[in-house]
Amino acid sequence: MREEFRYSKATHIFAYITLIGFLILACVIFYFGIIKDGYQVDSWWMILISIILLVLNIFLYIDIKSRLIYIDVKNKVIGRVNAINTLEYSFSEIKGFSINENYLILHPNPPLTKVLQIPISYIEKTDELFVLLASNFKNLDEEEAENSVEELLNDERLGYNETSRLENFTVAKKVSKILNVVSYIVALLFLLFPRIYFIQYALCAILPLVIVFIYKKYNGVIKLEELKNDVYPTLIFGLVTLVIVVFYRAIIDYKIIDNNKTIWINLSIASAILFTIFYSLVNGIPVKTSKVLFFGSIFFLIVLYTYGNMIILNTMLDKSKPKIFTPKIVNKHMIAGKNATYYIKPEKWNNLIDAEDLEVSSSQYINKQIGDSLIVYCFSGAFKIPHYFYLIK
Questions:
Q1: pLDDT tens track of the chain, all 393 residues?
Q2: Cβ(325)–Cβ(378) under 8 Å?
Q3: Using alpha carbons only, how large is the chain's radius of gyration in Å?
Q4: E-assigned strands of the chain?
Q5: CA dist 108 → 44, 69, 89 (Å)
């Protein structure tokens, strides 16, 4: 018995509409390649593009019509067909299957390495496909989840018997959930409504340290990595959200002279120190992903976290007196639309590589003309990173 699974009707309709659009485009390009204003022009490159589009259209049509997944239970083979080739495995060559958001993945047994991916969101009769797969192959997602539960029940970090382990695991899940929710709320409010700036910033800066403390305290039972089918809780999403928001607010809210070498020296030293402290604290905690990937990802987050905090604190803690500059406006322009935006561009000042366009209100845009002067207050910065702001009257 051979069962075939093709693209759904909705997918075919969408594909055909797209192909018709490509065909019309090819015809239009071809037309303008030979005729313009009623005269023959013979633009060879436009004709070539139209021919390429036409050939591509034909190929895509053939591919859509030929694509299918088949399972032959009698002959114990499973395969995928497209316009280019056919990939077929015997049942004995398949270790099992797993599912992610968009694909059903067939994993081969060694020494075979070619993974068969099926785009389940486009395939019809997916329920029948899952039943056939489950009756003939091992569900690796279920197996991984079962192994994760078994690992949990035998995890001595959680206690000395199954009852205490389950109780401690429940507590760990609650702690993780609460900390993640608090992190999301604090980060979102600081991102969208930074009304009480210092307090909101302080919370966003401190919570990542709390997350690392909890990770260390629970000895990796609460993780800083996300694994599919893993029952252990994770804090990585809360951590990433906080770090990104602090970094974003730093680059949006503060203007710095970034051709100053001090910022990169400070960033390198501070990031290296923080990473060394983190590594020394958690090095003995087991991780399920590659250590290189895990610590590499953490180092990247540390760099973003360090940069954001350094820029914000450089301004907040600055007690220096400003230098005043009066650059002239060298250009102005607007971007029309439902909500028009207005920009003026000052000349370079204080050895800036280039002065950025400044977004202004419509009244400021009207009042300020090319040649008029602006006022710039430039501060040396608490960490010797010059920062500034424009005063536009």
A1: 688 888 878 887 888 888 888 888 888 877 776 765 555 555 677 778 888 888 888 888 888 888 888 888 888 888 888 888 887 888 888 888 888 777 888 888 877 667 777 777 778 887 888 888 888 888 888 787 777 777 777 777 777 777 777 788 888 889 999 999 999 999 999 999 999 999 999 999 999 999 999 999 888 888 898 877 677 889 999 999 999 999 999 999 998 887 778 889 999 999 999 999 999 998 888 888 888 999 999 999 999 999 999 999 999 999 999 999 888 888 888 887 778 888 888 888 776 656 778 888 888 888 888 888 888 899 999 999 988 888 887
A2: yes
A3: 30
A4: 2-6, 35-36, 39-40, 68-72, 77-81, 86-90, 94-99, 103-108, 116-119, 255-256, 323-325, 329-335, 341-346, 358-360, 375-379, 387-391
A5: 48, 16, 8
Torsion angle in degrees (nearest 10) through CA of 204, 209, 210, 216: 150
Residue 75's contacts (CB-CB under 8 Å, 6 or more residues apart) are 2
CA 294 to chain centre: 16
Q: Three-state DSSP class for 131?
A: helix
Q: Does domain 323-391 have CATH number 3.30.200?
A: no
Instruction: Say how many C-beta atoms besides its own lie within 10 A of residue 379's C-beta.
Output: 19
- Residue reference for tokens 């800083």: 224
Whole-angstrom distance between the N-terminal and C-terminal Cα of the chain? 80
Cα 237 to chain centroid, rounded:
12
Can you give the residue ranges of every domain in the chain? 2-91+124-137, 154-316, 323-391
- The C-alpha atoms of residue 327 and residue 329 are separated, in whole angstroms, by 7
Name the residue among 311, 285, 300, 294 with its Cα closest to residue 382. Answer: 311
Q: What does the alpha-carbon distance between residue 231 and residue 147 come to, in Å, rounded to a whole number? A: 10
Give the three-class secondary structure for 85: coil
